[in-house]
From TrEMBL:
Its main location: membrane. It is a multi-pass membrane protein. This is MMPL family transporter. The chain crosses the membrane at residues 200-218, 224-243, 255-278, 298-319, 331-355, 375-404, 589-605, 611-631, 643-664, 684-705, 717-741. It is found in: Cell membrane. GO terms for cellular component: plasma membrane. It comes from the Bacteria. SUPFAM superfamilies: Multidrug efflux transporter AcrB transmembrane domain. Keywords: Cell membrane, Membrane, Transmembrane, Transmembrane helix. PROSITE patterns: SSD. Residues 192-352 form the SSD domain.
Length: 756
């Protein structure tokens, strides 16, 4: 498995990030070949702020020309869809004495003479490219290209990290004290995430060292401390090896899963070592007998907890987005490996451990037990009315707050830039610079106006598309709109010396003379004009903006159905985000219900007790709702990167409750009073639960300092979930047990609870 793990390669893909089964994405794939996809890269060559001049300068245009050529030869670029002032498809049109004159904005006989530069300035003004390929202040120009999912020269899947490195090389080559190079696009996001991911190894090392130190403090022995750590590391190696064996790579957005497997492995390993140590020190068993006793006590509840995690993670497969499904498979493989390393290997190794000075070891352990017993006596009070009632009141208040905040949880992004990176990252700085200088922005929604063949020469259908464009132009959040009728109106005005009053569509004449001059490179119609995309440039890709714009499209399409034009959503990066948000919104509740239903089923199968299900499940449900409330409060949206946190956090939290209840139920079955039964459960496993939570909290705390915003967000959410799960297991679980079994102490009747 180690050999396989070392062969694991990074694996990022644009189509992995999108729900291909969503209706929007089916439309996207249907017209991808004709009108391009949403996997774009944009490079803006811009004058530095404070420097004199504009783009009409020999040196600037030379840089723009070289950047265009470099982008043209990037691996994976669709060379037919590279656009800049220097590409032939960018043309101007003007009215002259004998009709129209057209030509390339930058002539093919370009020479950097003053006359040619003046001519280019004039052509740019006539080409309607200011705001699209030329910045509004004409101090910057754009190169736009589309990437293919597979490299056309090799047929292999495109290496986005290599593309990002080449893009960064372009920046280094041409950026100077006069010129800024701004780069945006999915490939650059993957590159920046991959670069920042290198620090994950540092966090992994910190987590290992801190966990080892805590294990030593907990076990009082380096040998015992190393055992659960090595068992967890073995599970991580198996996870990565199985991932490679199954034909997957490690996506940069799934780099946090090995952390979680390490943490879960340590959690279960500590339970075994703690129980083994208790059997040796308190019950006087030798290593082998202690290991057998520990195995009998913990194998079933521990394995049930892990199987619950596996099935809980597998429910993420309901989200039909490949990256989320890969994370689910990745986590499920890791949890299966934990069963082997912690439930089979670790007990065998513990049976071989020899304690050299048994009496001294037992004396140290008894001293530790005596110190902790004072704490457990106080904590056990939560199984009595005096502490249980206030705890239940606090939990009820927290539940009300969470239910009030839950409707405010946003599905999608709440930030203007790329949420995976810090707001001050180079990418987001570039994105803001481009968005502030170009009218089209960096976010586009393509809506396909589908009609009969040659709809572009039908006045009624063109009028319908024009009304749609006007409707969308006046929608809040839309920066600008580009459509074929708009260009046709400009052409008609040109026939009448540019008079604004003629900038309308004719109602009773053939439109062919108006649409024929429109260059095909604009991508506003297919050859037979049966499909005419309308490009809607939005101000940002916040979830609220996307919802508002998409709803405006749906409203117009519904109110104008039957007019011969079908407005179909969607393409462009905003279309991809809209589909992703709708997929998560439709499936998110289903995933959470399945996760908790699975927990309830396995809790009942383990203990055959409704009280057990109630006491184990309630803190987990409350923790999930509180996490959603926190996300709504902090402005963290529900996205493919944050959705798995709910399943992961609940999966880890159930371990605490199952281990505690497995001991608690044995004493309840013997008619032991509630407080005494919970005290014994804490003595046996409480310290391990608290230690596990402390090690998990310390591991994810380092994530808060990551250069990746999504890792910091996940770290914060996991930190909160680990803490609330701990409080729920230690304090709320006994309070709930008191609520359900409070009559039991006054009328002692054994509670039905299967001893596992």
């Amino acid at each position: 498995m180690l050999v396989l793990a070392l062969r694991l390669q990074p694996d990022a893909g644009f189509e992995k990030q999108i729900p291909l089964d969503h209706p929007y994405m089916k439309v996207f794939k249907r017209y991808e070949q004709a009108f391009g996809g949403a996997n774009l890269i944009s490079i803006a060559v811009m004058r530095k702020p404070g420097t004199p001049g504009d783009i009409y300068d020999a040196g600037f245009l030379d840089t723009l020309h070289k950047v265009t050529d470099d982008v043209f030869f990037l691996p994976g670029v669709d060379r037919s869809r590279v656009t800049s002032l220097f590409t032939p498809g960018v043309r101007y049109m003007e009215v002259v004495e004998d009709g129209f004159s057209t030509g390339d904005v930058i002539p093919r006989d370009y020479r950097p003479t003053p006359e040619m530069l003046a001519r280019i300035r004039s052509n740019v003004g006539k080409a309607n490219v200011i705001g699209r390929l030329v910045s509004l202040d004409q101090r910057g120009a754009m190169v736009v290209a589309e990437l293919l999912e597979r490299d056309p020269s090799t047929g292999a899947r495109l290496d986005y990290r290599a593309v990002a490195a080449r893009l960064e090389a372009i920046r280094q080559r041409y950026e100077n004290d006069q010129i800024d190079i701004r780069i945006i696009g999915f490939a650059k996001v993957v590159g920046d995430v991959s670069d920042a991911s290198s620090e994950v190894l540092m966090f992994f090392a910190i987590a290992l060292l801190s966990t080892l130190l805590l294990l030593w403090m907990f076990c009082g022995s380096w040998r015992l401390a190393l055992l659960p750590l090595f068992a967890a590391l073995a599970a991580v190696v198996w996870e990565l090896g199985l991932l490679r064996l199954a034909g997957f790579g490690l996506d940069p957005f799934a780099i946090l899963v090995p952390f979680l497997i390490l943490s879960i492995g340590v959690s279960h390993g500590v339970q075994y070592v703690n129980a083994w140590r208790y059997e040796v020190a308190v019950n006087g068993l030798d290593s082998r007998e202690a290991s057998i006793a520990t195995f009998r006590q913990l194998f079933i509840p521990g394995t049930v907890a892990i199987l619950t995690d596996v099935i809980g993670f597998a429910t993420l497969a309901f989200i039909k987005i490949d990256i989320v499904r890969e994370m689910a498979i990745n986590a499920a493989m890791g949890m299966a490996a934990v069963i082997i390393s912690n439930k089979l290997m670790l007990p065998i190794v513990l049976s071989w451990v020899r304690v050299h000075d048994v009496e001294a070891f037992r004396a140290r352990q008894r001293q530790r037990v005596a110190l902790s017993d004072r704490v457990w006596q106080r904590v056990a009070a939560f199984a009595t009315a005096q502490a249980a009632i206030p705890t239940l009141i606090v939990a009820a208040v927290a539940l009300v707050w969470a239910l009030v905040m839950y409707p405010k949880l946003t599905v999608g992004d709440q930030q203007a830039g790329v949420p995976e990176l810090r707001p001050d990252s180079r990418y987001n700085v570039d994105s803001r610079a481009i968005g502030g200088s170009f009218a089209i922005g960096v976010d586009v929604l393509k809506v396909f106006a589908v009609g009969a063949p040659y709809s572009c020469v039908d006045p009624q259908k063109m009028e319908e598309i024009d009304r749609f464009a006007w409707h969308m132009q006046n929608t809040d959040g839309v920066r600008s709109v580009l459509s074929l009728p708009q260009i046709a109106k400009q052409v008609r005005a040109g026939w009448f010396e540019g008079s604004p009053k003629w900038r309308v569509l004719p109602r009773n004449q053939n439109l062919s003379q108006l649409v024929a001059p429109v260059p095909s490179q604009l991508g506003l119609q297919n050859p037979d004009c049966s499909v005419m995309p309308v490009l809607i440039f939005t101000r940002d890709h916040r979830a609220s903006t996307i919802d508002r714009v998409v709803n405006a499209v749906k409203t117009f399409a519904r109110d104008n159905a039957g007019h011969g034009v079908d407005f179909q959503l969607a393409s462009g990066n905003v279309g991809v985000w809209a589909a992703t948000n709708e997929e998560i919104r439709a499936r998110e509740l289903l995933v959470i219900i399945w996760v908790h239903a699975t927990l309830a089923l396995f809790a009942w199968l383990s203990f055959r007790s409704g009280v057990a299900v109630f006491c184990i499940l309630t803190p987990l449900v409350l923790c999930s709702l509180l996490t959603y409330g926190l996300m709504a409060t902090l402005g963290i949206g529900m996205k493919p990167a944050t959705l798995p946190v709910a399943a992961f956090g609940v999966g880890i939290g159930v371990d605490y409750s199952i281990y505690l209840w497995s001991v608690f139920s044995r004493h309840l079955d013997r008619a032991t009073p509630l407080r005494k039964a919970y005290y014994e459960a804490l003595r046996h496993t409480g310290k391990a639960v608290i230690f596990t939570s402390a090690s998990l909290v310390l591991s994810v705390f380092t994530w808060l300092f990551s250069g990746l915003q999504f890792q910091a967000d996940m770290g914060l959410l996991l930190l909160f979930m680990f803490s609330t799960n701990l409080f729920g297991a230690i304090f709320l679980l006994p309070a709930l047990a008191w609520l359900a079994l409070r009559r039991r102490d006054t009328n002692p009747t054994p509670v039905r609870a299967v001893e596992t």
